[in-house]
Amino acid sequence: MKKFLPLIVFALLCIVPFFGLSTYVMHILILVLIWSVIGMGWNILGGYTGQVSFGHAAFFGMGAYAAGLLYQHLGISAWWGLPVCVLILTALSLIVGYICLRLRGAYFALATLALGEICRVAAENLVDFTKGNMGIMLRERTWVDKTWYFYIILLIAAGTYILIKMVMESKLGYYFVAIREDQDAAESLGINTTFYKTISLCISGVLTGIAGAYYMNYMGYIDPSTVFPLSEVSIATVVVVMVGGAATYWGPIVGAVIMVFLAEEIRSIPFIGAAHQTIFGIILILIIMFLPNGIVGDFRKLIKPLSRAKRECHHEFN
Amino acid sequence: MSLIEVRNVSKQFGGLAALTDVSFVLNKGEILGLIGPNGAGKTTMFNVINGFYPPTKGDVLLKGEKVSNLKPHVLCKLGVARTFQVVKPLQRMSTLDNVIASAFIRTKSKAQAEEISMEVLKFTNLYEDRMFISKGLPLGKRKRLEIARALATKPEIILLDESFAGLNPTEINEQIEIVNKIRTDKGITILIIEHHMRVIMSISDRIVVLSYGQKIAEGTPLEIGRNPVVIEAYLGEAHNA
Hints:
The complex is a heterodimer. By secondary structure, chain A is mainly α.
């Protein structure tokens, strides 16, 4: 059963568009899938390799801008951004990795934090190239209906899931986890830690960038404050993965479902809605205190009291 | 034939001279003991040989080639494996996965890495514990896991840093047997740091003694046991008592 779970989920998602759901629900589902891809990308670096990044907005935004600028300057379809951003983000990851991955722990996290902010400020100020705060708008959308957008991001998400599963069950995966657990030990076991950390960053960055390029195509409009922000992308990514469960296959997906739905719910509450960031912060603190491995990682711990409570009020439910 | 030659190595940390002008040779097939009082520079010597620190002066030669400035992972590929005094298991991985991660250095296929690991785990009597998370193993087994991981990289030389410290007598005997088997069955050359006198005297072919970062003696266990300089620096009080 557990083995077929991914297939079942995929099959269910494949038939979702036939249910005739409202555009709004479809939009939410697409957002969940985008966040799943970003989360899975972050998870490779932050969860499995143990290099926590607070700057994934840089990769997301670069992907989005790669797509947007191709359209803006060359006049070709923004969908070209998907393949092109692979090249751009590999290059960016190599540069960032060369500079930052000699740093360990908190210092690496701080360097990535700076990276995200540098990208945002650059995008705001290079007005001739990026249009600055005016942002980039696609003058025509590819489809009016959301069905095809949904299938494309579903394919991207499924591909990401399969890629991560393959990576984690190979030599690379063992090396990533070894680096997370003890860098000195890993080094003495013949693992070139800097090299493998850079590979991890490349995979992570490219996946996040693809999500960004897709976002450009889907939303049709980007500006620096929507694709490069610290709290709404960089931190939100960390929250999604931590809530769902770092270093688990399903963690980022579960985290994305919860966080996107919560965000929508909280935002619709009058007065409190504006404070949804604060509420996310509180949720993160609670999760770190009580479920340090996230909902998927600590699933047993989570259902234990629930199943006990169920047993106790068994007759009530029947 | 000398596998490793340490040639006039000095290592300074700021104003502190951890090693001063140390030279010795590790011959193929032997077990060489490295002893000395606390703070004598034994682990620093390991870190220099293993590539964690470059020496301030002098050179380390592996089969006649200079390797002083190579990184640990490169040295590991060249056949130098080590264990750590303070054990460094890959905590949240199972015992088996710990060993598989090290076995990947010689192969790309997971099946092959697993095969190597199973053999090594049986060799080190850890086979029964292979599915346990390594964090939860008792110290004796974690020390053996260090050895298992080093063996999985298929080394020519293995550096053992206090693999006997903190073990009970039964575990010590078991460990001695394993170390001897590493040489006889696998033909691996061993450089070992040890405080446990009974172990080091019975196990090594030759012993190098360090004190305050300098080599003060070198010889067979019998010669070292009788050497007045060594007794003064290291065994002094124990000898008189």
